[in-house]
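Hi P.,

Sorry for the delay on this. The queue was packed all week, but I finally got your sequence through. Input first:
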Amino acid sequence: MSPVISIKDLSKVYSSGFKALDRVSLDVAKGEIFALLGPNGAGKTTLISIVCGTVSKTSGTVLVGGDDNVSAWRRARTRIGLVPQEISLDIFSTVANCVRFSRGLFGKPVDAGFLEGLLKDLSLWDKRAARVVELSGGMKRRVMIAKALSHEPEILFLDEPTAGVDVNLRRDMWALVRRLRDRGVTIVLTTHYLEEAEEMADRVGVVDKGRLLLVEDKASLMRRLGKRRLTVTLAEPLPALPAALDGAPAPRLDDGGRKLALEFDAGEGGGAMAALLGRLDRAGIAYVDLETGNSSLEDIFVGLVGEGTR
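Then the structure:
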């Protein structure tokens, strides 16, 4: 199956000489949720802005549904809905008129049933007659999403969609994204909330300094680069790590000698844990509790781009 978005050797260099994107190539499949991660200034917004046609490229090609987004910009743009970071709305318009007008810009006929369903999906139906200026920041964000979906696009770009919104609204938006994906809509999102990508994405791309560092299935990435942790709570604290516990990987003492912490590659399975527990038993070191955990996508992200760029 051909990708719904195909980007090849895309670069963007501004007149100042700043290179925002450096030969980025990426394919996005129809119906997937793709998360683009990266620190501030990495090039995420520039990338999606070029795909959506709001920023010009320096070189490279972008195909949207098989159409070049420059030579066949009208067809390409019709396939796309964009929710930018900044809220930009006619504050004196009502919610319903704002969304209806956006639909009309794409030549779509009036469809009262579709409008009602869209506003209900976004918990905006009760606010349909309210003017935008009267809404909270979170409700304005919902209107932005409704506008982006008003012409029934095949692809939805969400640039930091939940920045500045409360936890409940964030969860509502996650649920909406999943429903859209179930209908076949392709979702591309940029986010600083690593748990957002971990919760929703099928694949993850990491951008830093204008370069695409990797693109990988989320589960595969977490298996390959992730870590597992075992924390053993000891019956009696140890003043120092005894020689009997030497081994690879070696544990470390935590919490004043009351706990042993072992970190190992996720791909190793449970062998490292079993080996440590075996050494404890042979050394006669009693323990009262075990706790296991996995590294998060945030841990992996920080490891890739560096702690200083968060």
